[in-house]
Amino acid sequence: MSYNINGVKRIDLEHWRVSLHKPVRVYQQQEDDFHVTRPNLCRFKNAIGIIFQSTADSHSTARDHRHICISEDQGSSWQLAVKNADVNNYSLISLENGTVVTMPSESRKICDDEKGFYGPRSEIFWDGEKLDIKHDKCTVRMPKELMRPLKDKFLSGGESIGRQDKPFGDIWGTIQVLKDGRWICPGSGCYADEERNPDDDPETPCRNMGIFHNYLLTSGDEGHTWNWLCDIASPNDISGGTHEGTTETHFYEFEDRWRCIFRTNGLVYNKPLHYCDSFDLGITWTKPVPLSKHYYVSNYYNSPWEADTRAPLIKNVDGQIDPRGLIMPDGTTVLTTGRPGSDIYLAGGTGTDFFKIDIVAHHNSLYPDNLLNTNSFRDRFPGNKNFYPNTGHTDVLLLDNNKLIFTYDRIPDGWRHSGSWKHKNTAFTAPDEIYSVIVEIEPK
């Protein structure tokens, strides 16, 4: 690992030579911001965008709040284009005409027959000076009735009562285009007849929540209507069970198979990402396999990793949440994930032997006063089991044949916001930040 005269770090991995440019601060929390986290990348005409969350995390939130930053120089510098826009960023697609289309999140509502949900579909366009945002409607149709929050039951350890019109079902993940032209996107949810966590569950934010399973949705009309295609994996498919279920999924379309990588737990009881494959376009799926040789045996984030003898010796994917990724033109598979860390992993094609690009170490070497994901921060809040100074939510976008841009957040106080279920009546002591970094990857 070495730096050249331009400050670019060179890393030699087993099959790749990687060049890491200096991370760029995209945005720093302002006094009128409540929270800035969870960035996702998109491509406008002659510009790149980062859309990120600007609210606390709450099931009772009634609308989407997002800031949008724009770069017109391939990520070298950024400008704030709009604050608190009524758009989502967890599921989006960048169209060839420069329009970015996003699907609803907090603003979704359950359908009258409860077999699906609907919400605003947003189209965002950058004209070089300002953003134009238009809204219409998207509807998601599911095969069975969806679960709702229980009436008069508290969620998140007493923080709020979940909205009765908001189902336990979502669209979450990168929207992609299948070879047949349909859009495909993951999601996760619970059917009304499935299991629910009790109101005294030890994993506080999961109290009265459904135990989710993931699924794939397809659309033939550019996201106005989504139809359930298949379920991917259930909580019962995960060895040892899972309080959260199978959620936060990234979909890969390889030549000979579909692959889904997904979260299985990332709050208190920690589990690694899992993956499964389909060789018949989603009709059947292989049994989920852990994407790590490790797992946490304790319910504390700062517990040591210990070997999981049940898992195959697959290398090095430490992150547990919100996988994102892409397949590069040369066939290299890119996976990004976090918690712990906010890092990039590379594999050859459908291989599951992943190699880590350590973004945390790179960030910390260049920003010693704005460290990311270190134990010293946890020591400031010894009573917080769930502490990490970032959410672990990341994203990646292909800029050129061998060039990527990667984004991540830094939240120095962790998931610690005023009135939250983790720390009541507390305020920020340091500002949240969003970063991006250019990564060049060349096969050896």
Describe the structure in your own words.
The chain has one domain: 6 Propeller (Neuraminidase). With 444 residues, the chain is mainly beta. The chain is globular, with a radius of gyration of 20 Å. Helix content is 3%, strand content 41%. The strands form seven sheets. Strands 9, 10, 11, 12, 13, 16, 17, 18, 19 and 20 form a ten-stranded mixed beta sheet that branches. It has two helices and 33 strands.
Give a short summary of the structure.
The chain has about 450 residues and is mostly beta strands. The protein is about 5% helix and about 40% strand. The chain is built from two helices and 33 strands.
List keywords for this structure.
444 residues, mainly beta, Neuraminidase, ten-stranded mixed β-sheet, seven-stranded antiparallel β-sheet, 2 helices, globular
